[in-house]
Specification:
- The chain is α+β, with helices and mostly antiparallel strands and about 140 residues long.
- It is built from three helices and eight strands; from the N terminus they run E-H-E-E-E-H-E-H-E-E-E.
- The protein has a single domain, classed as 2,3-Dihydroxybiphenyl 1,2-Dioxygenase, domain 1 (Roll).
């Protein structure tokens, strides 16, 4: 089941400059950076809400995403569209069930099965042609129970 908005991803050509804009200039806290080798990207996450605010689900974040070592599909995206909004990500507690349900409704995914994402997540992207031109990511975090 879809639980909440997880993050808004922004494609950027250079991560340090983008981190400066969002973290230093806007004052959003930098949660950290991570290389996601499966997607050939380097990411930086910046939470939007105060970390001290009690919430059942963590606050949505901004994800700055850049090609890892100048490689991967994000290079083509930046070449064609330039920097800007890349995708919206929704947190789910059952990515396999959500994928099956959406496939039954005629939606297509960019991969047949979930792949590895940042923070040891499982992720799947809905094809933007089925979502009115918006790339949508489903994100399932590992359970800690």
């Amino acid at each position: 089941m879809i639980l909440s908005l997880d993050h808004v991803a922004i494609a950027v050509p250079e991560l340090p400059e983008a981190v400066q804009r969002f973290a230093e200039d806007l004052g959003l806290p930098l949660q950290g950076t991570e290389d996601v080798h499966a997607a050939q990207t380097r990411t930086a996450f910046l939470p939007v809400a105060a970390a001290a605010a009690p919430q059942p689900v963590p606050a949505p974040r901004i994800e700055l995403v850049t090609p890892l070592e100048g490689q991967g599909p994000l290079v083509r995206h930046l070449d064609r569209r330039g920097p800007g909004l890349h995708h919206l990500a929704f947190r789910t507690d059952d990515i396999d069930g959500d994928m099956a349900r959406l496939k039954d409704r005629g939606y297509r995914f960019t991969t047949p099965e979930p792949t590895e994402g940042a923070h040891h997540t499982r992720v799947a992207f809905l094809h933007p042609k089925d979502m009115g031109g918006v790339l949508i990511e489903l994100v399932e975090y590992p359970s800690h129970g």
